[in-house]
Write a structure and sequence with these properties.
- It is a single chain.
- This protein has 410 residues and is an alpha/beta fold.
- It has two domains: 5-138 and 182-251, Rossmann fold (3-Layer(aba) Sandwich), CATH 3.40.50.1820; 307-401, 2-Layer Sandwich (GMP Synthetase, Chain A, domain 3), CATH 3.30.300.20.
- Helices cover 32% and strands 24% of the residues.
- The protein is built from twelve helices and 15 strands.
- The chain has helices at 47-58, 83-100, 112-120, 150-156, 172-180, 184-189, 207-216, 236-251, 307-329, 356-360, 383-390, 394-401; strands at 5-12, 18-25, 32-37, 61-66, 106-110, 129-133, 158-163, 166-171, 193-198, 221-225, 269-273, 281-285, 288-292, 337-347, 364-374.
- The longest helix has 23 residues, at 307-329.
- It is elongated and about 90 Å long.
Length: 410
């Protein structure tokens, strides 16, 4: 079983040009595949594309994101493309994915990529759910990015326009193509679950587009307002939020992981770097997937608990479970248990709970302070026993007695 990672791939686009792709793979079993379509003149490597794909992978959903013809690392001539060719590139990606891995069950599209996934979703039988981010309700909306050049394009057949600080050649056929394709009917007939995410103050694609998409779609459909976000989700916090929402929502339309049975073999815990931020890692423990990170003040992105947070959580969880087992065994009425664990490093000579031998060792030691609370209060006659039983928690014993760590490099 492999840790979460990204691999490169390529496939033939609508015109035969080689298109560059990245496959974001989860740690462990793949629950489903998703296709991600990027925004107009963007690439598969935008912040939003990387973070959303990474978050889906952490939920067990593998993602294929690729550069449309003539963009990013893909071959081909962008000037010869149009909205219809983007749709055909998506179809080629879905076909390649079905042939080499599995057919996509989720489509995610950002901006014009959102319009493209709406246009093709109804034609892909494998797709169960579609999510759009800042998508226009009509492909022709993209003309607003170069509206001052439309007359020149119609008269000369083409014009060089500035889009995001880069020059692109737009031809007459592009304008004619986006004007000819209507999305409302396709949205209404696609028969897929739909999630519409849009920023109310989106200055590139107005919020009225989200309303039109939502109105045209049939249920099940959902809308999430991205308050304060910009169109390209350039703020890391906004991209992370969208990623988490899509991952959580998409899981509803996929088969649930089977609950682990008591006699199932417990698999190793897998930890792998995600490539997002300096320290973020994806953790796969049995059927459970989550992240660990470091706080911002030490260079992390704070997208998950730190390693020491996880260690403290292990002690707290083990303590609560051990006390519950004892209460049930002894048929003691014990309210719900909560455990607060504080970790810090202290000088051995200042550790009041340490032995003389430990103090004599000098230096700093790890100190975990555990506070056990019982709903309704701990019975006075049981307080000492509760503390004694907490000390028998296996994690407690491991921390106090130490453990042997054996390392092997492969």
């Amino acid at each position: 079983m492999m840790a979460a990672h990204t691999i490169r791939a390529e496939f033939d686009g609508h015109s035969g040009a080689k298109l560059a792709a990245r496959l974001d793979l989860p740690a462990g079993a793949i629950r489903a595949w998703a296709l991600f379509a990027h925004c107009f003149t963007c690439s598969k490597d935008t912040l939003a594309a990387k973070r959303i794909s990474g978050e889906l992978a952490r939920e067990g959903i593998a993602v294929m994101r690729f550069d449309f013809t003539g963009l990013g690392s893909s071959d081909g001539d962008f000037a010869s493309t149009n909205f219809s060719s983007n749709i055909e590139d998506l179809r080629a990606a879905a076909d390649w994915l079905a042939e080499h891995y599995d057919a996509p069950e989720i489509l995610v599209g950002h901006s014009l990529g959102g319009a493209a996934v709406l246009a093709i979703a109804g034609e892909l039988a494998s797709v169960r759910a579609v999510a759009t981010i800042g998508a226009p309700s009509q492909a022709s909306h993209v003309i607003g990015n170069f509206s001052e050049h439309v007359d020149e394009i119609k008269a000369r057949g083409e014009a060089e326009v500035d889009l995001g600080g880069r020059p692109f050649t737009i031809k007459r056929q592009f304008v004619e193509d986006v004007n000819a394709i209507g999305l409302a009917e396709r949205i209404g007939s696609m028969k897929k679950a739909l999630l519409v995410l849009h920023a109310p103050r989106d200055e590139v694609v107005g919020i009225d587009n989200a309303s039109a998409i939502f109105t045209a779609a049939r249920h099940p459909k959902s809308f999430v307002s991205l308050d304060g976000a910009d169109h390209l989700l350039t703020e890391e916090a906004d991209a992370n939020y969208v990623a988490r929402v899509i991952a959580s929502w998409a899981s509803r339309y996929l088969p649930a992981d089977a609950p682990r049975q008591e006699d199932d073999e417990v698999e190793d815990v897998l930890v792998g770097e995600t490539g997002q931020g300096r320290f973020q890692v994806a953790i796969h423990a049995g059927l459970h997937r989550f992240m660990a990170d470091e706080p911002v003040d030490v260079g992390g992105s704070d997208t998950g608990p730190s390693p020491y947070d996880l260690m403290a959580a292990a002690l707290g969880a083990c303590t609560a479970m051990t006390l519950r087992m004892y209460a049930r065994l002894k048929k003691i009425e014990l309210g719900l248990v909560s455990v607060t664990v504080r970790h810090n490093k202290v000088h051995a000579k200042d550790c009041l709970e340490c032995t003389d031998e430990e103090r004599a060792g000098g230096g700093k030691i790890d100190r975990f302070e555990r506070v056990i609370s019982i709903d309704g209060g701990a019975p006075a006659e049981l307080a000492a026993k509760i503390a004694e039983i907490a000390g028998k928690c296996p994690v407690h014993r491991t921390l106090e007695q130490g453990a042997k760590v054996v390392t092997r490099v492969e």
